[in-house]
Design brief:
By secondary structure, this protein is α/β, with parallel strands linked by helices. Helices cover 38% and strands 20% of the residues. The radius of gyration is 32 Å and the shape is elongated.
């Protein structure tokens, strides 16, 4: 009755089905791992954003690498802005996807060390980004700023090429070690994305809170792959039964035709 399963067509179909089942199961497991990784990163962001602000010196120091655990932590710093050594970071976009600059201002702490403060986004002066833009001044004198602690930017992590030969006082990546060499000062690792005080005017536009990864999508993909893997054997059985039924119907028809008397 099921001798057709030994045919070349059905052997190939069965082998493909047997290969698809473990492949789909493994893809589901991989998507579940992605879900767990993204959920863990989202939890780190949530914990960091919800933590109480602490002095920046408690989480970073000169040459320190900001870890994923401390990334986005709210920190405070007291000192004065050094606008004379201010630079801008090229090709940065705001919430409206407009291209402009991030304003990076050295902030001299009361102990003489420096922390880099990203004061926010400003538009470019026209279509060209070669001219140094007009930057609103930060608060003068000693002040306290609050910001999210961020790791140094790298090409590997951001995908942004660190171009050379840029116009004066323009950079591509925020890197504390490079800025320490430029300033000839002791610079804390990483930088602050300023959240307070807010600028008096419209610019610089403070950088918004980081978004979270869509972990639920990976969870849905995992379930989808596992449903596919379960559907393969079900589909194989359905095809086998249909083939068996069609063959049985053809055999019955042929038998009926042979048993009918020949016409006179």
């Amino acid at each position: 009755m099921y001798r057709f399963l030994l045919s070349r067509q059905w052997v190939i179909l069965t082998l493909v089905a047997l290969l698809l089942i473990p492949t789909m199961i493994r893809l589901g497991i991989w998507q579940m791992h992605r879900y767990e990784e993204r959920s863990a990163r989202n939890q780190l962001v949530t914990d960091a954003l919800g933590a109480k602000p602490v002095p920046v010196q408690t989480l970073t120091s000169p040459g320190h690498t900001v870890t994923s655990k401390d990334r986005y932590r709210s920190v405070t710093a007291t000192g004065t802005f050094d606008t004379a050594d201010e630079v801008v970071v090229r090709r940065r976009v705001n919430s409206d996807e407009s291209v402009g600059f991030h304003v990076l201002t050295p902030f001299v702490l009361t102990d003489g060390k420096v922390v880099l403060v990203n004061r926010g986004w400003i538009p470019a002066n026209g279509p060209s980004q070669t001219a140094f833009p007009k930057i609103p001044a930060p608060p003068g004198g000693e002040t306290t700023v609050t910001g999210r602690l961020m790791p140094d930017e790298t090409t590997a992590a951001s995908g942004i090429k660190d171009l050379k030969g840029l116009p004066d006082r323009q950079i591509m990546l925020i890197n504390s070690e490079e800025q320490a060499r430029r300033l000839g000062a002791t610079v804390l690792g990483g930088y602050l994305a300023q959240t307070a005080p807010e600028p008096k005017g419209d610019t610089p536009e403070l950088i918004g809170q980081p978004g979270k990864e869509d972990a639920a999508l990976n969870y849905a993909y995992a379930i989808q792959w596992w449903l596919f893997s379960a559907a393969v054997p079900v589909g194989w059985v359905v095809l086998v039964r249909r083939e068996q039924r069609d063959r049985g119907a053809r055999d019955a028809e042929e038998t009926t035709e042979k048993s009918e008397p020949a016409a006179v």
